[in-house]
Amino acid sequence: MKPEYTMSRREFVASTTKAAAGAVLINQLPASLIASTGGNKRRLAMIGTGHRGSGMWGTSVVKDYGDYVEFVGLCDINPGRAETAKKMMGASCPTFTNFEEMILKTKPETVIVTTVDGTHHTFIAKALEMGCDVITEKPMTTDEKKLQLILDAQKKSKNKIIVAHNYRYTPTRAKIKELLMQGRIGRITSVDFHWYLNVYHGADYFRRWHRLRDCSGTLLNHKASHHFDLLNWWLESEPMSVHALGGLEFYGKNHEFRSTNCRPCPLKDKCQFYWDMTKDKRLMALYADNEKYDGYLRDGCVWKEDIDIFDKMAVQILYANKVQVSYSLTTYSPYEGYRIAFNGTKGRLDHWMHEKQPWPTDPYDEIQVTDNFGQAEFIRIPTIEGNHGGADPLMKDKIFKDPTLPDPLRQAANVRDGAMAVLIGVAARHSIDSGKPVAISDLTDLVPQAVKPE
Ligand SMILES: NC(=O)c1ccc[n+]([C@@H]2O[C@H](COP(=O)([O-])OP(=O)(O)OC[C@H]3O[C@@H](n4cnc5c(N)ncnc54)[C@H](O)[C@@H]3O)[C@@H](O)[C@H]2O)c1
Fold it and tell me: For residue 366, how many C-alpha atoms fall within 13 Å in the half-sphere facing its CB?
């Protein structure tokens, strides 16, 4: 049974009038998000109490930031999952299935949006309209119409949106940013960026709601928005045009047998992609025990014929500052990781990362900086296990503990940053469908700038 994630919802913000681009989209954390030091904790509500919501934004926030914030409401379309999440988090607030009711009854100051990607816009716009600040998971949304709705809601509101682009906070990526800001390789002219998802992690996207365009906007949006945001941030510029190729040639219909999901599958002995979810108590409690409410199968078959996303993608991006990027995303690689190289007028910066390998890997990440006509310097940064390479706690410290912390590397992502990351993926999807390049300025009222506006 298809999850009810894409059910039609009342459009909360009517206007899609085009207006001047970006004027109000300032790059700073909202003052209203600053946790009170006078004893009053900031009132948080959450919509979408699944894996990411209950874990990274739930249990950990209750445990590590309890002096600064408190949950006053939890909401999910699946009432069982909201209750399960509440227990897992150790929260004592009420749970809801109706978002507006939660906001009216619990009066949160900040709403955390951790639902399925294709539904974020509804809750972001409504939360702003009801006077709340918003922390939204990436990708901020999944298409240009939903994005324009968010941009219009933001223009009408004094409240602010933080987009949780956590990848910026990984120490190695921060070091790359620092080197680029110092002009270590001169002016950057082009970038080669290739990301490999392996047959474990990559396959998992094809088991879940991510397999449907309506829910995820494809992996060009759900997954690559992380990578496109990193590019935008590293390059300090905005994308101008996108040309892409993509296909679905491995998962989905490209197989001789299939089932609904792994647990009851009669073919588990002959399927290399069989995954035994029953070994994971947390996932069983969050999803299997609550299937009766929405029919959502967390261990869906990777060979399902309804899969309508790409499993191989190649994207060319031209930035407004003339940097050109070659990007690719592969979803069935034997190993997981990425390679990136920045080509500059004075040299080249290379970085590669192999993560989540079944075999031992080096305990450090490496950056190689090579000067033209010169030598190579190798910079090693110790790896941090879990929490997206140590990024998640750093981002949460900044959001919850001390939003006034200096931000010399400009790691805090605002609504314009969230929009630009989404726009590359949306443009790439349209380009694959049409076979033509897509101009970013044709999608919403945002006009790409050569130097990212402050
Ligand atoms: N930044 C990161 O590294 C990172 C990692 C994982 C997930 N995420 C993001 O976090 C979000 C949640 O992902 P997840 O892995 O927890 O997925 P999930 O499926 O575990 O959770 C999503 C939850 O949203 C609920 N939901 C769906 N539609 C709803 C609606 N209309 N109203 C109310 N609730 C609704 C579902 O019932 C579910 O409980 C996604 O946007 C995802 O992209 C980010």
Answer: 12
Confirm or reject: Cβ of 177 under 6 Å from ligand 1: no
C-alpha span between 125 and 16 (Å, rounded): 12
In angstroms, the Cα distances linking 448 to 21, 76, 151, 191, 437 are 9, 36, 15, 19, 16
Neighbour order of strands in the sheet with 312-319: 376-382, 364-371, 347-355, 336-344, 188-198, 324-333, 312-319, 239-247, 438-439
Proportion of the chain in helix, strand, coil states, percent, rounded to 5: 35, 25, 40
Q: Which two tokens stand for residue 200?
A: 């474990």
User: Residue 415 Cα, ligand 1 centroid: separation in angstroms?
Assistant: 19
Domain extents for the chain?
A: 4-167
48 in contact with ligand 1, CB cutoff 6 A? yes
Three-class secondary structure of residue 421 per DSSP: helix
Number of helical H runs and strand E runs in the chain: 15, 15
Would you say the pTM of this structure is higher than 0.85?
A: yes
CA distances to 166, 191, 439 from 181, rounded to whole Å, are 19, 15, 27
Q: Whose CA is nearest to atom 13 of ligand 1?
A: 52
Q: 56 near 392, Cβ under 8 Å? A: yes
- Is any atom of ligand 1 closer than 6 Å to the C-beta of 107? no
- For ligand 1, whether the C-beta of 49 sits within 6 Å is yes
Q: Go through 283-315 and write b for each residue having 16 or more CB atoms within 10 A of its CB, e for each that does not.
A: ebbbbbebeebbebbbbbbbbbeebebbbbbbb
C-alpha 385/C-alpha 368 separation (Å) is 22
Q: Which two tokens stand for residue 416?
A: 């314009």
Fold of 4-167: Rossmann fold (3.40.50)
Q: Are 311 and 248 in contact (CB under 8 A)?
A: yes
Look-up of token digits 């190289």: 341
Q: Is 164 in the pocket of ligand 1 (CB under 6 A)?
A: yes
Distance in Å, CA 220 to ligand 1 centroid: 17
Among the atoms of ligand 1, which is closest to the Cα of residue 115? Answer: 24
Q: What angle do CA 18, 19, 23 make, to 5 degrees?
A: 145
pLDDT, one tens digit per residue, over 221-236 is: 999 999 999 999 999 9
Using one digit for the tens of pLDDT, what is the confidence trace for 5-52? 433 333 322 322 233 333 223 233 444 444 433 458 999 999 999 999
